[in-house]
Every structure is written in structure tokens, then in C-alpha cells.
From TrEMBL:
Gene3D superfamilies: Immunoglobulins. SUPFAM superfamilies: Immunoglobulin (SSF48726). InterPro entries: Ig-like_dom, Ig-like_dom_sf, Ig-like_fold, Ig_sub, Ig_sub2. This is Ig-like domain-containing protein. It comes from Syphacia muris.
């Protein structure tokens, strides 16, 4: 029979570790009688279980009243309960675990996209400048029924009589 202790979740000692870091929980008891740890995944660990592995989750018990998680994984959040003779002694809480994120791939992709769009914009700009300069050298506009001419290369209006 497990004797429960009602506690407010806000008052629980909590820890927010980084993925892959080591976490140590110390249960404040001098007793070595039937010390058990109840883990968030629903499993229990007794002092007779020196260590066990569940997938990538590695737990150890040292000095009977200490729980060591050697490498915290993302799915290890939740309550860790220390019991002695089926009586809750202490509750520890991991609300969430900070994931290790590799930003290198994102940065490289962002730079490649930026360079691609920069080259595309530069190509369009150079092409439009080339086409514009090629066309303005070969023609000039004459306004109908007018003595004025528009010189595309100089972007000015000139009087035809002043050309002669």
C-alpha cells in the first residue's frame, strides 16, 4: 500500500535540464529500508536494482537515496518520486527538457537561398541595363507634327531646327 501525500505542483522542487545533461536527485532520508524511485514512465526502481536501461534512458542508484540520470532525453520529463517503505518522502519534477538544436544546417540553407536570390536579382538588373542601353542607342523619337525630337540616349527634348 502506497501512502500518498497531496502537494501543489507549484511547490514541487523542479529542474529544467538540457538534453544530454546529467541530473541527480537526492532523497532526504537516512533510512536504507526499501527505498524506491517511481519514474515518470510508470516504472519503479528499488535499491535492489542497481541500474537499468530503458532504450536510451539510463538510471543509476548510488547511496540508495540518490537517483542519477546520466543523459537526460526529451521524453524524461515528469515526476520522480522517492518512497521509503511505501511512504512518499520527496517528489521532484522535470516540467520539460531543453532540446539541443543544431542551427548549422538552417544557417547554411538561409545563406544559400540569400545568395541565390542575390545572384538572380543581379542578373535581372544587368540584363535590363544591357537591353535598355542597346535600345536607346539605335532610335530617337520624333513627336508627330512637331519640330521637337526626343533623344533617348540623353533623355532630352531638342528642337529640330537647332540640330541642323
Amino acid at each position: 500500500m502506497l501512502i500518498c501525500k497531496i502537494v501543489d505542483a507549484k511547490s514541487l522542487p523542479y529542474l529544467i535540464p538540457r538534453e544530454g545533461s546529467m541530473v541527480v536527485f537526492n532523497c532526504n532520508t537516512s533510512s536504507t529500508d526499501d527505498v524506491r524511485w517511481l519514474l515518470p514512465q510508470g516504472t519503479s526502481m528499488a535499491n535492489s536494482t542497481a541500474s537499468f536501461s530503458s532504450g536510451q534512458q539510463l538510471y543509476d542508484m548510488h547511496n540508495v537515496n540518490q537517483l542519477i540520470i546520466r543523459s537526460v532525453q526529451l521524453d524524461m520529463d515528469g515526476e520522480y518520486v522517492c518512497t521509503v517503505n511505501n511512504k512518499i518522502i520527496e517528489i521532484f519534477y522535470i516540467p520539460y527538457i531543453i532540446a539541443n538544436v543544431n542551427y548549422t544546417d538552417s544557417i547554411i540553407l538561409s545563406l544559400l537561398v540569400s545568395v541565390f536570390f542575390g545572384v538572380a536579382c543581379l542578373t535581372v538588373l544587368l540584363f535590363s541595363r544591357h537591353c535598355c542601353t542597346r535600345h536607346t542607342k539605335h532610335f530617337s523619337l520624333v513627336a508627330p507634327e512637331s519640330s521637337e525630337i526626343f533623344d533617348c540616349s540623353k533623355s532630352t527634348l531638342m528642337n529640330i531646327s537647332s540640330i541642323n
